[in-house]
Specification:
Largest sheet of chain A: 2 strands, antiparallel
Structural class of chain B: alpha/beta
Strand content of chain B: 5-15%
Strand content of chain A: under 5%
Distance between the termini of chain A: 38 Å
Radius of gyration of chain A: 22 Å
Oligomer: heterodimer
Shape of chain A: flat
Order of helices and strands of chain B: HHEHEHEHEHEEHEHEHHHHEHHEEH
Structural class of chain A: mainly alpha
Strand order of the largest sheet of chain B: 1-3-2-4-6-5-10-11-9-7-8
Largest interface: A-B, 55 and 78 residues
Number of helices of chain B: 15
Helix content of chain A: 25-40%
Number of helices of chain A: 3
Chain lengths: 94, 487
């Protein structure tokens, strides 16, 4: 199944990335090529195989519930595009 | 030999004998950078003042007779996705072109505690997505062996800098081969440690189940020293392994007698005959030294490419969702409201490869595709991991070429994403299974370096380094030098 320009627009919306018309065109071709290269995976018999999410065995790692100092507020704001009164500020929401 | 051609352990000897000071060494490296950086363009940011200050501190300790850690006073560089409070951390992206981290990555803290002299931040493919360093927002980096060619990627800056004498060693990151492939292209040593051995705290994530930080060095001895400095548990990285860290220097013996090595037959298909010749010579050397070498098979290796690209793009789309123009990074000046701010900030701030992979990642995760692509890839990952477990029940190490070609010319693959992705064909299995792998130089093809890859089971960096060290000593490739700066 080939993905269409409309599919690309939907994906771009979900990814929250504005694309130029040229990008839509070239990404449609590229992603179809990449998806073709992923096709081989579908032939693999995996009904009885459990998934692996990462290379190690450890999971649900906990630490002691001890308060440690967090990031200093000034430092947290040092890269903010805009901030005001101790908040990150953004354009209107509604 | 010039100072900038020496290894960290050689320079340390000179420093301890008071033949050079750390400041002299740092100045020597900055002079070298001045001489060749216009051609190589390995760095995005240089932090000379801070580096000289760090060097002065080392000299002071030295004059007071303090014992110095192994990497004290050695000038090094960091890939620009490793956070430092000094200098920017850009990930070679317009999105983070002005970003200064409020904290140091754990690996940086550990190197600073050693007295490392941090020369600057090194170029890379944008957000570590690429195999040629051509997707950097700032500039390309040239291969010091042939300035018409790419250094590989995504750690192209870190490998080019070490090859060109612009850093004694560097740290890179490896998600699918991003340390080993450029190390092979630039004729240096590159190690991807076991997943979880080195903290990723403060390293900008690409694909969290695959990413690992590792050393890029001039020889295997330096590789062991740098690994020693950065390895070990970090509570700030929840998947960091909580086990003891061995003394990797014990691996530095030219002794491989009885070591069982499996040569992966699937990875000798469609390859440059010169590369095959060099790799076969390396295999013969290991056999001469008493290693037991056999051909072996990884039956599911043919699925590794599709498995890797499905998983890596899915994880990347999730990790890169954080760049929304709110808390840090590029914010579009055209924003009318929050929704358009995010769309436009990401549209303007991210480069084509990052966008392409983000879209692909969302595709393989959406609706029915989750089962047909993403979950299927996770299951294939189990089979690939099992293949490796099976192999490691018979062998201590696996051996493959690192790449199927030597460094290619600029633009050769930039327009064909699938051809570019195939650069990682032999390196991605180590990331999928979480096992350690090293690339070291094993010869030349038409004057360009060739790399051989060794792979070990989880946390067996000792055997990995031991075989690599023995091979390095036996091959003795110290003759040819990169062409850069040779005028």
């Amino acid at each position: 199944m080939r993905i269409t320009q409309k599919d690309i627009e939907n994906l771009a919306m979900q990814a929250r990335i504005e694309l130029t018309p040229e990008e839509k065109e070239s990404f449609m071709e590229d992603i179809n090529d990449i998806l073709d290269s992923l096709e081989e995976l579908k032939a693999l018999e995996t009904a009885q195989i459990p998934p692996t999410v990462h290379g190690l065995e450890n999971c649900n790692v906990f630490r002691e519930d001890v308060v440690i100092p967090g990031l200093d507020r000034d430092k947290a704001f040092q890269n903010a595009p805009e901030h005001q009164d101790g908040f990150f500020s953004v354009p209107r929401i509604l | 030999m010039e100072l900038f051609e020496l290894t960290a352990h050689q320079l340390r000897e000179l420093m301890l004998k008071k033949e050079i000071s750390a400041v002299e060494l740092a100045e020597n490296i900055f002079n070298r950078i001045e001489a060749v950086e216009e051609e190589v363009q390995a760095y995005i940011t240089l932090t000379k003042e801070k580096a000289l200050e760090q060097a002065r501190q080392v000299d002071e300790k030295l004059s007071q007779g303090e014992e110095l850690p192994p990497l004290a006073g050695i000038p090094m560089g960091l890939k620009d996705n490793i956070c430092t409070t000094h200098g920017k951390t850009t990930c070679a992206s317009k999105m983070l072109r002005n970003y200064v981290s409020p904290f140091d990555a754990t690996v940086v803290e550990r190197l600073k505690a050693q007295g490392a002299v941090i020369v600057g931040k090194l170029n890379m493919d944008e957000f570590a997505m690429g195999s040629s360093t051509e997707t950097s927002y700032f500039h390309i980096t040239r291969n010091p062996w042939d300035l018409e060619r790419v250094p590989g990627g995504s750690s192209g800056g870190p490998t080019a800098a070490v090859a060109a004498g612009e850093a004694v060693y560097s740290l890179g990151t490896d998600t699918g081969g991003s340390i080993r492939q450029p190390a092979a292209f630039c004729g240096v040593v590159g190690l991807k440690p076991t997943y979880g051995l080195v903290s990723r705290f403060g390293v900008v994530a690409l694909a969290s189940s695959l990413d690992q930080v590792g050393p890029i060095t001039r020889d295997v001895t330096d590789c062991a020293l740098v690994l020693q400095a950065i390895a070990g548990h970090d509570p700030k990285d929840s998947l960091s392994a909580n086990g003891p860290v061995p003394d990797y220097r014990q691996a530095l013996v030219p002794e491989v007698k009885g070591l069982k090595i499996g040569v992966v037959k699937e990875y000798f298909n469609q390859m440059d005959p010169q590369i095959e010749k060099s790799v076969r010579e390396a295999i013969a050397k290991l056999e001469e030294m008493g290693a037991l070498v056999e051909e072996t098979t990884l039956p599911h290796s043919g699925y590794a490419f599709a498995t890797y690209h499905t998983i890596a793009s899915a994880e990347c789309s999730s990790n890169l969702a954080r760049f929304d123009g709110v808390v840090f990074g590029h914010r579009s000046s055209q924003a009318e409201d929050v929704a358009t701010m995010t769309m436009k900030s990401r549209g303007e701030g991210l480069g084509p490869e990052v966008k392409r992979r983000s879209l692909l990642g969302i595709y393989v995760l959406s609706g029915d595709n989750y089962n047909t692509y993403y979950l299927q890839a996770l299951k294939a990952r189990t089979l690939i991991k099992k293949d490796l477990e099976e192999a490691f029940s018979k062998y201590h190490l696996l051996l493959t070429p690192t790449t199927h070609s030597t460094a290619f010319k600029f633009g050769d693959k930039a327009k064909d994403p699938v051809a570019m992705y195939r650069n990682d064909l032999y390196t991605i299995i180590a990331n999928l299974a979480g096992v350690p792998a090293i690339s070291l130089p094993c010869g030349f093809s038409d004057g360009l370096p060739v790399g051989v890859q060794l792979i070990a089971k989880h946390f067996d960096e000792i055997n990995l380094l031991r075989a690599a060290y023995a091979l390095e000593q036996a091959l003795d490739l110290r003759g040819p030098k990169p062409s850069v700066g040779v005028k």
